[in-house]
Structures are given as C-alpha cells and as structure tokens.
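Model the whole thing, not chain by chain.
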Amino acid sequence: MDSVKTKIMIVGFGVVGQGFFDLFHSKKESLGLNNVEITEIVDKKYGYIERPPIDLTEKINGKTDYPLIDPAKAIKNSDASIVCEFTWVNYKDAEPAFTHMKTALENGKHVITTNKGPVALRMDELKTISKKTGNDVLFKGTVMAGTPSFNIVKLIPGAEVLRIRGILNGTTNFILEQMSKGSDFGTALKEAQKLGYAEADPTNDVEGFDSAAKVAILSNYFGWKHRMSDVQREGIKNVSREEAAHGTKLLATISKTEASVAPLQLEDTDLLRHVNGVMNALEIETDSLGPIYTMGPGAGRKETAQAALTDLMEILNKN
Amino acid sequence: MDSVKTKIMIVGFGVVGQGFFDLFHSKKESLGLNNVEITEIVDKKYGYIERPPIDLTEKINGKTDYPLIDPAKAIKNSDASIVCEFTWVNYKDAEPAFTHMKTALENGKHVITTNKGPVALRMDELKTISKKTGNDVLFKGTVMAGTPSFNIVKLIPGAEVLRIRGILNGTTNFILEQMSKGSDFGTALKEAQKLGYAEADPTNDVEGFDSAAKVAILSNYFGWKHRMSDVQREGIKNVSREEAAHGTKLLATISKTEASVAPLQLEDTDLLRHVNGVMNALEIETDSLGPIYTMGPGAGRKETAQAALTDLMEILNKN
C-alpha cells in the first residue's frame, strides 16, 4: 500500500458525495493519505469526471459537459480499489445503489456507502458476495451519519449487546420539539422543510420508514435478523402537541425479540427524552456496562462525509 | 501470538483486579483468547499467587497463605508480557503504581492500568520509557471506566477535537442529584457512602481532585499539556440545594486554553444537565461533527474491568 496509489471512485455526486470529496481533501494531509486519491466520479447529472481538480465542488453547479456514462459500466471499467456509493435512497428494491455495490464487489473493489436502501433491504446478498470476493462493505453513515453508533461496540470488546433504543430520525425529532413548544404538525413540518431537514415529500421521515430502515440495519449488524418489513412501524402523525410537550419521541427499539418504531412518552429521567432538535441518540444496553449512550448529529453534508471517511480509514488500516 | 501463550500478570487484587479476573474468564472463549492466560497475581494483602484457579475470587476473602512478595520484584521476575496495574490511587507521587508500571515497561512488558495517579501525574515519564522500550501503556479505565470516553476519537478519524466538557465524577453527581431533591450535603454524602459510591474520606471526590485528575489525563491524551496542578479546581461544598435543583453540575472543561473543574449551572437544553446519578458523560466538540456525546457508568467492578479488557484486546490485536 506504501508505493502503490490507492484509488477511490465516487458514485453519486450530490450533497454527500461533494461533502466527502471536500472533507477528504481537507483531511488528506493530517491523515497521512498522500498515497490515496479520488480518481473518478460518476453521477447521473454531472456525468463521468476523471482526475477531478480539488476545487471541483466550487465549480460544479450547473456544469454538464462531462460525458454521461452508465455508473455500473464505469465501475466495471475503473481501476479504483474503493467505490463510494452515494446515490439516492430507494426502499423498494434499493436500486440503482444495489447494482453499483454488487458490481463493485464483483470487480474486486471495497465498498463504502451511506445509502440506507441496500443495507436495510439487501445486506444478506451483499454479505454473500463480499464473503466470496473478500472485499468489504462498510456503511457507518447509514445510522447517525459520522456520529459513533453501532461501531461503538468496537470500543467495548467482549460486551454483549442486549437491547437498543434510539432516536434515529432528526426530522421527526425536530418536528416533535417544535410541537412541544406549541406548533401544530403542519407548521412544524413546513419549518423543517424550510431549514432543509425535511424533504418535499416527507413520507419516509414522518411515517417512520427512515427509522425502520435503521432498525433493520442495526438488527442485521447485531445478528438479530429482523428485516425492514418485519419492523412494527408507526409514524408521528397521530402525536398531539400535548403528548409532544410531555416527552413523546419517535423511539426505535431493537433486540433479539423486538423491532419497532413508535411514538412513546419517555420519563423525565430518561436521557433520550432530552435529545432535542435534529440530534440522534442510541442507548446500547450491554451486559458488562449496563446502558451506554452515544449522541450527535444524524445527518448533514460534513457529518455524513465524516462517516465515509471513518469507513475509508478502516479499509486502509486493514489492507 | 498463535502458538505462544500470552501471559498476563495482575498487580493489585482489590475490586478492580478481581473484577477483571472474573470478566476475563467469562469472556475468554467468546473473544477467542484460548491462548491468553492470567498466570500471576501479586497483591499487598493476598500475596503472590501463581497459576490462579479460575474460581479464585470466590475463595479469596481473608485468604492469606500466599507468600508476600514485593510487587516490583515480582514484576521483574515475571515472564508475563502484559502487566495490569490495579493498585490504589495516590495523587502525591503516584506510588507505588508508578514504580510498578515503570518496572514492567523496563522489563519489556505492556502495561494496562485503571489507576489515575500515574497517568494524571507522571504520564510524560511513562511515555518516555514506553517509547524507548516499544511497549504500550494503556489507561482507558482512568476516565469513565469501560464506557467509551477519549477512545471514541478512534471512531472519527480526521475529526479535530476542539473542546471537551464532562461530568467525570459519579459521586459528586449523585450527591448533587440528591440535593436537587431536597437533601442537604451531609445527608447526601452519607447516602453516597452507604451505597458504596463515596469513600470514608470523600475529599478526592468532593473537592474535585478526582475530576481534576481526569482533566489532566484527557488534556495529555489530546496533546493540550495541562498538568493536574494547573487545573482550576472548585469542589461542590459551596453548592446550595437550590443551585442543585436548578441544574448545577460539577463540570470539567478542557481545551487548549482551558482546564477547569467547577460547579456550573447548565441550561435545560444542555444534554449534560440531564445526566443524573453516578453516570458520567463527555461532550466532545469536533470540527466535522460539532458536539458528540458519550455517556455511561464511570465506576464499578465489572464496568472498570471492561476498560481493562478493552485495553487488553487493543494490545493483543496490535501485537
């Protein structure tokens, strides 16, 4: 790894892709990555960009004179050893991200993703290919962006994880906080959309699909095998202002026997009750420590990019 | 490492030593440590125990027929490659723990400790020896027991830590919570002593020495170089019940330019305000994520043992 250059390809150059591109370059030197380069980018809108200049994100808005190439084809032809999959979420069949990741693995590349679709819906398939080819699929950014989440268990070897509770969706947590201060649901949702926390179609957040995807991801990580379709899911549409004011949160609960997302009124002594705004939180109940907590941002350009950087360093340190 | 047995020596067989002994044996198989053994124990009271039986802690109370040997001599004569230093805290000169650790390093052994004295007061000396001999000194258990604390930065490579705030002493946090419910200081302290949270002489906790030691340890870890004697320190003796009821906590603050322990009234929106009982918490402000939080137990038999197990796995994975 010392003299050979490690090449990275980015697939999907939206907010996360651009955030990763910039964070990578700003941290390259301090992380000693002189020998690692982002050599290719492929994006549905921007096209195929080879040897991108480091000030690319400043210039790219509206730029369309790069050739449009099918991402799967670009991945197959690439000499990069690491592919970062940053395209859009699709909870139906996880495409096109799944095909991108599968193609990368089958062509001997490690995969980093922040895309919840393939990890929530088709991780078993990806694991099978990954085992066969010996390449990694890392997905830290799918739960709590760059904030330590499931990977915190690396710091407590031997500890058995018994149960997890979490606030895993910042949009609904923000809406519930606004409602606890007197807003009605509609006004709070509009405020969330204005601030860029909620999408134009807020279904995935408000109905709990985003949280349910994270429940499936955590369940898979901890070997509990609940699928996204198995997750008992209730959104926040029926939560009243009064309930919000009394500490109702959209709570994810996961253990060997549970997998649910539902609004729940939390006690004042419950640390999760005090997680406000778009912040995310996990309570991890273990045998040696009892409950431990990790909290922090669960979304954002730089915040999600940090997750991909964490995964990148894990791959580089292992290989 | 595969065929040669890795031998561990425990120095100091009190609550932490016994906790580690038991946790090690209960997790040995799941961690794949068939080739790792605790082969020697040396303790001021119990004496020198070679090839201890795995049910030792059940039998040891009052047991005194093992030979009394000077621990430094036992370390020098030991063929263990890892020494766990679990003796008592001394904030004057960090002895005898410092001598134990120094002897271990000079004799080619890695050191794991949960003892704040040497790490808070004499880490620079230990680092110098450690560099010379190439052996590690790991001390996860000195801050927040086995709960992820400073080591959480391993999960966010590249992120720059700008500032830390923390509740690092469970005893005073418990006392302040009792006071917030109406107890006076004396009654709350007695309750803490009854529950085993406070020692007969509570000075180290109540006057903020324990927190100040942790400030020094964190400062050293993050390269900010504040010594324990530099830490601005105020205990909780002058906190009123009313202040406790309005969210006053014994707060540690550390950055390049700050190192303090003082009672501070926290805002209701501050997550640290809601950390109650003997729980500990760290807020770590970073450039890529903003503030992230880790919370959990900061003391206890099994909880502190987990920290030493975490350090042990780090040494085994590296060597």
